[in-house]
Amino acid sequence: MLFILTHLLHLFPLGAAILAFASPVFDRHLSLQGERANASGGISVNLFTSLERLSRLVDITYCVGTSGIRQPFSCISRCKDFPSLELVMTWSTGVLLSDSCGYVAIDHGASPPIGELYNTPPGTGKGNTKAHHGAIIVAFRGTYSITNAVIDLSTVPQKYVPYPPEDDEYGLPPTEPEHICTNCTVHMGFLLSWQIARRTVLPELKRLHEQYPHYPIHVVGHSLGGAVGTLAALEMKVIIGWERIIVTTFGEPRIGNTGFVEYLDTAFRLQDEGIDPEQRVYRRITHVDDPVPLLPLSEWGYRSHAGEFFISRSGLPPKPSDIWPCIGDYDPYCIAGSDGEETDLVEKPTLEHPPSDANTLSSGIWHIPARFKLWGLLFAHRDYFWRLGLCIPGGDPIDWGRDRYPATTTNDEL
């Protein structure tokens, strides 16, 4: 029990927490949620089942750097839920705020996966005439101090250049890609995390992709891992040219400015009206009580991107009817509704030099919308189908004794 309490305190330091207060904007958000809930039937059971399983794959990443993951695919957490997975590698680049941890695994599959999305993602331009039911999984772990990572590393947004230098050691094309990222900046810490991890991850993925060219690559991540995974997926898709990239993030923070958001939306066709939301190849899962998807602040020049699926239920477990697809970059029925984004953007100019520490942020000098809640940082940020973040048998104790989600198939395909 002492280990669990210590881990929780380390997970979200109280010194970096942001206090909550009531707001008419937040009350309006609750009203809008009610309207959307009445109009939406939620997501399909098939998509729900897939997202739930991906959340367990993300939870396993928290074993990297602690008790570990061993071959063939064994750990003290949820590895036994995925008997068809084979561990390829794990990586851990350090304990600093720019650290990156995760694993690469391969699933050869035993039966057809759920939905056409996992055989031929729409918008790839190339279909696969032969059924291949395997997948390559790249899972990125979240940081143990997300608030510190967001605040301490956001002082200087980094220019984002979406193609490798001419002397790139992996033999990737040094030419500029088809999609141009104009006036793009991203969070310095998130970019540094990927730049460090790519030295280990990309060579292994290149080998696997050559060996299994028809397997889609599922990039999954929680918290900081969602942001780093996004940068990884962009490089795989736009720079290297791998087409079958499917991204699912949970509690992903904002990554970059308006230019970057437009670039990402275009690369993954997130604004294309002709695509069924459930057939998107990028799913950004948010939670009604989780403030992290609203960090870093819009006043600092950061923006949210499209592809959001919103969990409207506060407690665990959610149901398919509690989750709905969102429209565009800022849907008032979803997480953006608690931000008062339109009001903030009009009344508050973007700061050229954002604050560099938590004390400045919480001192009252800066405008703090009602989206920030202390307990949201401690718990809701981890409540994505299960309570994520502890590598112990059965996962977080809050999930002990809880029934499994109903399964519509007999295996753990994606």
Automatic annotation (TrEMBL):
<dbReference type="InterPro" id="IPR002921">
    <property type="entry name" value="Fungal_lipase-type"/>
</dbReference>
<protein>
    <recommendedName>
        <fullName>Fungal lipase-type domain-containing protein</fullName>
    </recommendedName>
</protein>
<feature type="domain" description="Fungal lipase-type">
    <location>
        <begin position="137"/>
        <end position="297"/>
    </location>
</feature>
<dbReference type="InterPro" id="IPR029058">
    <property type="entry name" value="AB_hydrolase_fold"/>
</dbReference>
<dbReference type="InterPro" id="IPR051299">
    <property type="entry name" value="AB_hydrolase_lip/est"/>
</dbReference>
<dbReference type="GO" id="GO:0016787">
    <property type="term" value="F:hydrolase activity"/>
</dbReference>
<dbReference type="Pfam" id="PF01764">
    <property type="entry name" value="Lipase_3"/>
</dbReference>
<feature type="signal peptide">
    <location>
        <begin position="1"/>
        <end position="17"/>
    </location>
</feature>
<dbReference type="GO" id="GO:0006629">
    <property type="term" value="P:lipid metabolic process"/>
</dbReference>
<keyword id="KW-0732">Signal</keyword>
<keyword id="KW-0378">Hydrolase</keyword>
